Amino acid sequence: MDLRRVSLGESRIDYQDGWDLQRSVHAEVVAGTARDTLLVLEHEPVYTAGKRTARSDRPIDGSAVIDVDRGGRITWHGPGQIVVYPIVRLGEPVDVVAYVRALEDAVIDTCARLGLATTRVPGRTGVWVPGDENGPDRKICAIGVRVAKSVSMHGIALNVDPDLTAYDRIVPCGISDAGVTSLVKELGRELTLTEVADVLEAALSRHLAPLTPSVRPIMDVTGLPDAKVDRTSILADTSARPATPSAVVAPPADASIAAPAAGTPYIGLDLGLTAAGAPSGGGCGCGSGGGGCGCGGHADDTPAGHVGASAIRLGDDAAEKAPASTEAAPAAQGANPATSDGEASSAPRSAVGEKLAPNGRKLLRLEKRNAETPIESKPKWIKTRATMGPEYNELKDLVHSKGLHTVCEEAGCPNIFECWEDREATFLIGGSQCTRRCDFCQIDTGKPDAFDRAEPLKVASSVRRMGLKYATITGVARDDLDDGGAWLYAETVRQIKKMNPGTGVELLIPDFDAKPDQLAEVFSSRPEVLAHNVETVPRIFRRIRPGFRYDRSLSVIKSASEDGFVTKSNFMLGMGETFEEVVEALGMVREAGCDLITINQYMRPSLRHHPVERWVKPQEFVDLSTIAEELGYLGVMAGPLVRSSYRAGRLWGQAMLRRGEQVPENLMHLTEERSSRQEASSLLSRL
Fold first, then answer.
1. Are 199 and 222 in contact (CB under 8 A)?
2. 557 three-class SS
3. What is the arithmetic mean of pLDDT over 193-210?
């Protein structure tokens, strides 16, 4: 098991970055390309809410809350608190309750070794200081987990010496009749995060060992000096490392607990470092025009409109069902063409052994080459802030109470707050397997299951129950079907329009091999916007999208334009293209008849996908936006975290006004001027 301290002390990690990191590691553990891992870190101040959080639990002063895909209710993370995310494959059959009890036992064991008696409280999850002359039961450690595909996520938050007044603005874990405490407050003496982490990590390895086939206990390292380590990727293969690298903690001579077997790594006590960047949860709706999603932001394999797959989330008093979690997406090979306009990815390459991809298949040769490059660190501008308005909160409560599914939530899209405020959402159709493989797309390639002919009705029903004013539909390529899936795409639009008169629909499609009969079927459904994403420039197109042809993608856009549609496409930057090539490609796509364009940063979702060749600076997005408008595009959205479905309705409304066409009264709000936080110009103003 890889044991990793991501950040403790002076260099704390933003919650979103930590969430992105654990999702990336989870995808790798699920795929078999990384070993079980403990992420140990300290967050910047943040409130996070599990699936069972009630509106009354939330801060009354309007403080931002990040909704996450774990069980339990609301809690706080911040300085003085150790957070541990065990990302481990549990033995079969999976017993989530036993797993949570093992986490509790590890914390109780840790507290005891530090001199504090703690316990469980019947009917409540977490670890507690029992009531005494100092007050009633007090919670010292919160626990909220999610187990998907037999691999755990999220974990524990142990209060060492935080500012406990942060809990005053919420109802912690939904429990109003008990207090919150910390180790330092109870023990009356100073403790550092490092010394507590030493004890906690050893305790976790001991208590998780019976439940996880690959975890063997490590020694108790209490009292050892801080370890120093190299900045090695936590996802890199460690089998070839020397027996005593600086990252390995040697056992004390009188260790009372058996040391691990030779070769078992105790890696990366990476104190004070910022985590290596993982996919940012860029959300979906970027669509690959046949690969489903190329944003690298999915947390889940399960299509939004699908029902049946489930993951288990256990929180403060119950286990619950939720959409299944998955692996991630894209990558490519080549030099790092750093220019004055971009920042090259500089992660070292490391050897990777024979690994498995999703569903147990062997990695392709390209995927093996990709995996030689560790996940790249993200620059400071790749982040977003949660801003929750009344429409967002109302829609979120509705989605959770009705058990509805959207790509927006299940992919952890950073733009969900703005889109839901406009009553916009994205759905993915066609299944979890794509018949083509793009080197940036997280949806796996394989033989798809028979598609669900009731899916269009299910999606339309979700749109109605959510009260959406604008919906984006995207999906996978289905070359296994006689019609390439054309009926499924068209019927989904027809059902949405039938059940939701007045709701705008944007349809993001694969190329259907540019077959006239299949395109005609799709066009007959008459969505407001017909989108097909080109994604990259001609020079590297075949390497990135081997199942597609550039000229064929352009012909799809041309056909849609000639049929009178508002047309749309997308470019992802950072896969090896140059600025000049992007400008030329923008001209080609516009000449084909494309009206709307989105431009964003490619973010690699897993080791097996195309490495990030450069991080494009915000100013380059501003420059490209200006050039695109000069080329005649009717609407442009450009920025690192822009996705092709981002503010989709507003981009369509802008195009309608510029075309001189009437916008329906119920969609007039989409024509109002409103800033878009992810646009590069807005981002630059905040840096």
1. yes
2. helix
3. 89
| 669 within some domain | yes
Enter the tokens of residue 114.
């530090």
Residue 334, in any domain of the structure: no
The rounded distance, in Å, linking the Cα atoms of 264 and 260 is 6
pLDDT tens-digit series, residues 431-459: 777 777 777 776 666 777 787 889 999 99
- Residue 620: phi and psi, rounded to 5, are -65, -35
Q: Do 474 and 283 contact (CB within 8 A), yes or no?
A: no
Amino acid identity of 540?
I
Cβ contact 316:72 at 8 Å: yes
Average pLDDT, the chain: 74
Position 175 pLDDT exceeds 80: no
Residue range(s) defining the domain that contains residue 652: 390-685
Percent of the chain whose pLDDT exceeds 90: 32
Of the candidates 126, 123, 90, 125, the residue with the CA atom closest to the CA atom of residue 107: 126
N-to-C CA span, the chain: 38
Residue 447 belongs to a domain: yes
Q: What are the CA-CA distances from residue 687 to residues 341, 385, 617 (Å)?
A: 17, 13, 12
Q: How many domains does the chain have?
A: 2
pLDDT above 70 for 661? yes
- Predicted local distance difference test score (pLDDT) of residue 170: 60
Amino acid at 151: V
Which of 211, 243, 260 is a domain's end point? 211
